[in-house]
């Protein structure tokens, strides 16, 4: 069984920057140690969608996923730190993000399954 997380973030609203960000996320472009760290954390599936400069990340995680443990592991992993530093140059925080918060969790407001 998996749980779904939906997170939001904006990109710097410059076409060239957005194109470079997308190129970094093309199939095979993300460094293998970064992909391995995602999978090792219990993230079973992850997709990022874009509309304009807004990103939506959808993650399906296993019961083993612990976001606090993932954050600590990432801070100790030089490959992940380098990746996040690179990505920070393309990203900007949402205006309502808490201090230090990068990707903001979206709240579920509608679920077709709950409608009967």
UniProtKB/TrEMBL annotation:
| PANTHER family, alphabetized | UPF0734 PROTEIN DDB_G0273871/DDB_G0273177, UPF0734 PROTEIN DDB_G0273871_DDB_G0273177
Indicate what this protein is called per its UniProt record.
L-rhamnose mutarotase
Native source species? Sphingomonas citri
Task: Tell me which Pfam families the record gives.
Answer: rhaM
- Superkingdom assignment: Bacteria
What Gene3D superfamilies does the annotation carry? Answer: 3.30.70.100
User: InterPro entries from the xrefs?
Assistant: Carb_Metab_Mutarotase, Dimeric_a/b-barrel, Rham/fucose_mutarotase
